[in-house]
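re: ur question from yesterday

yeah so i grabbed the chain u mentioned. its 685 aa long if i counted rite. heres the sequnce exactly as i have it in my notes:
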Amino acid sequence: TRVTSFNELTLRASSTDGWSVEDASPWTRPKATYLRDPWMKDTQQTLGWPCGHSRYVNLFLNGLYWGQYNLAERTESTWLAENFGGEPEDYDIIKDVNELEAGSRAAWDAMIAQASAGLATDAAYYRIQGMKPDGTRDPALPNYLNVDSLIDYMVVHIYAGAIDWPNHNWWSARRRTPDSDGFRFFTWDQEISNISLTTETTYTNERFEAVSGPTHSPAFLYARLRENRLFRARFAARAIELTTGFGSLTPLQNQWRWQRRQSEIDRSIVAESARWGDSRQSTPLTRADWLAEMNWMRTTYWPQIHQIAVGRFQSVGLYSTSSLPAVSIVPPGGVVTRGTRVRLSGGGLIYYTTNGLDPVAPGGEPTNDAMLYSNTLPIQARTEIRARRVLSGAVSGLSSALFLTSLEVAPESSLAVSEIHYQPNASESEEFVEVWNRSSTQHAIVSGLRISGGLDAVFPQGLVLKPGERSVAVRDPAAFQRVHGPLRPAAAKFDGQLNNGGDWVHLLGASGASVSRFRYETSAGWSTSPKGLGPSLTLMRSTQVLDPSDPASWRASLTQSGTPGWNDGDSFEGDPFADRDSDGLNALTEYFLGTVDDDVASGRDHLPRWVRSPEGSLELRLIRARGSDQTVFHWESSEDLRQWTRDPGIGEAESWIREELEELSWKLSTTHPARRFLRLRLELR
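ran it thru and got these structure tokens back, copy pasting raw so excuse formatting
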């Protein structure tokens, strides 16, 4: 979370997902996981909506161990102001069983009244969002409903089969200002979810996908909006996006989020067993019982629930494929097991490629790479299918799907924050943060990836980075493209801003796991050029994993305004000890100096040399390539040319920038022995 102060935090005992509760169908104590509510909130966050962050803690009361608890943010008015701006007094909060938590219920009641009057027409659909009949904003109308928030909230609850809902256990809030974006909905108290493969209804005896009430609930709004064609199309497009390809509600990503939370309590569940495992039975429930449920979730629930959940959306017409391209690709991409067979359909002659190229030329003829589809296609490794159908001379739109096997998916640890442009010299609207897939062989799934700290960014659904690829989150997409051009599109827009005096940056993977957390600074060894002088703060090139909290891992970009999507450092390749021009300087030394290893006359003036300053002090100078990221260097000294040690008398260097070169000068300390020898030590990183 980027929130740093809290008015309220909740210690959640997990209740109906824990061992201390009485049995009642469908939950029983042996099915307790302690994970179900956090998984729901984590999922909503992955979809781009701030929700109550949480962590597990061990609770002691006056020294007595009281069990494992989930310490969670409470989405009250102070939390809302911290996340969405304004003051706590600006917010109306309606929750649970139509309770007024804060503010006024006037806007809520007005919204429910409009919904009760019907939302089937386009005009009514737009009006509840504060829009004119043509869909443009009407400043004279209040915006009561954030439709996208409602859609994602409902998708998650329907997918997870939330049973103890929607008659209660819901939370909604709206900022009471002219620029309000309407009531948002937040996951709350969803411990009886993701628990059954056979249960089809909530406690209101309505099917998950067909909930319609009570009147004062998100389900009522959902039911009224299902009568509207625009809402149905919008809902279906989002449901398809989230549940296909590399979306956040695909089986692999669902399990990632679950396993991340499971690993957090894998040991503390033992202490929980000691405290509460025998609270309602003589034979205590233990970690072995918990692991049995974890195994069921992994081997049975997550593999099977996906098609069941998709069927729920289909049954109410909220998963129509009519908006999909003409050629249907099934499965529609994503991570699959080796040997999975892909089916293409759509009628006519279907041409396809597996090399990422268009199978049909602009004139309508198949390309030389195109193949005519006749049978299902087996997936053995990374495959990108592109397909079109040709019928009576007409050519369909392009369909495409990327397939990866599990061996081709990079671990989340392969991701790194690689560039921070925190203080552009022209306008702070040009700020950006770059994420890099460090793997040279595997793809990184960044759908739902988050960056937090002074900013909050969520990367879009379906986004996959190729080996070595980079992507950026920006403060203002229009300002970013004015500087960097349309060929460097921004993957995500962030809320908040980067602090010009240094700030925390937290990278969380698609599973919600912390990948890295560090603080950049503007002093104490950090490059100062990015502070308003034009360059960005850029992570060095390296064959090693660099510590982002170490200022030596960073430098100023050589390029003004930064290098989003690429790195302007020079990579070192080949044998570091080679000397192709036989000038006595090996390849690594020439790389560091910015000279050429096949030209004996190249850059001799770059070598270390003694200089007497105008003040009479003795200085040691050299010229190096600013982009020689893969070298680490320091001075060593000796009195006898046999024993060498790192020289403590050579301190910080003065620096002068000469485009892609940097001249460094060290003043020598006068406390050294009368005779000493110096050498420059270079290491490849």
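noticed a couple things. The first helix runs from residue 36 to 46. also Residues 277 and 285 are 5 Å apart (CA to CA).
anyway ttyl
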